[in-house]
Structure formats: structure tokens, C-alpha cells
Amino acid sequence: MAPSSDGMNRQAPAASAPSGRLLRAFSGGAGILLLLSCGFSALESGGAAAESSETHREVELYHWVDFAFDAPGAASGPNRWDVEGSCVWTHEDGVTRRRSLLWYSGEGDVYVYRFGASLQGRWSGVTSSPVEALDGLELTVDVGPPGNPHRTGWSGRMA
Predict the structure, then answer these.
(1) Cα separation of 127 and 131, whole Å?
(2) What's residue 29's pLDDT?
(3) Cβ proximity of 90 and 100 under 8 Å
(4) Handedness of CA 48, 54, 56, 60 (dihedral sign)
């Protein structure tokens, strides 16, 4: 994959979701600093037939995964940075939860929900936003072991 103008390797091209919303999925590097200076990588999803490749991803532990959605007309100009949204993520154990916020990608009408887990297993997320195209999306991420078995935590510190 070739990096885009912002230096990020895009995981999947735009595709039409079952709901008719246009979306893209990105997968993330090992942290925010790496996010700014390195490309992205992720495992391709081999999910069940009922899961859309646009709303399901597989990723290594301690890596980011981004789900980007086009929301035409959500806002314009500098107000694009103020569009609100969040995603509540629940681990398959039913107990562990995380909340991630929506952010504006800086490109057109594209907004991103990002997820990163510190626990392996399946995570399911449901989005909430006053913008219809960004609300009620059901996302899943299967988090596998880290590629480097000596990695402990987001910092990449070695055991």
C-alpha cells in the first residue's frame, strides 16, 4: 500500500455499507506518536459472513484500528472539528468497557472512530452521534496477540 498525502497507509478503499452509508476502515500503528510518523498495518478481516469488512477488523494487541465514515453535510468549514460522537466498546467478557470519541479526519466529510485494546478477544462497539450517518453503527474488532511476544503495553516496552 502506498501512503496517502498525510503519510497514512489506507487499509481499505471507500465502500458502500449495508446501510447505504459510505465508509472506509483504517488500521493503526502501535501508538499516537507512531501514528503521526509511520504508516499503518493490520490483519485483514476474515470475519463471518454476517459481518461487513467495513465494520469488522482484526488487529494485534496494542495497535489502533480506525473506522472512518463519510458524513456529507454534517458540518462545514471549521465546524467540522466540532461534530460530536462516541463509541462504547464492550469486551466479549461483558464487563470490560471503553469509550472512544469521534474525530474529524481533516479530509472532506470523513469522521473517524478509533479503538485500541489492552485486552485480547472480541470487542463490540455501538456509536452515538447527533449526525445520522455517524449514529447507531455497530462495529467489531477481534484483538489477537501482539506480533512481538515480548511487547508489554502501549509504549512498546520489552519484557
Answers:
(1) 11
(2) 39
(3) no
(4) positive
Q: What is the pTM of this model?
A: 0.66
| Residue 35 DSSP one-character state | H
Q: Which residues, 6+ apart, have CB-to-CB distance to 3 below 8 Å?
A: 9, 39
Query: What contacts 81, CB < 8 A, 6 or more positions away?
Result: 104
Query: What is the spatial distance between Cα 97 and Cα 91, in angstroms, rounded to a whole number?
Result: 6
Closest among 109, 25, 38 to 74, alpha carbons compared: 109
Report pLDDT digits (tens) over 97-155. 999 999 999 999 999 999 998 899 999 999 999 999 999 999 999 999 988 888 778 77
Sign of CA dihedral 17, 88, 85, 33: negative
CB 26 within 8 A of CB 11: yes
Amino acid at 24: R
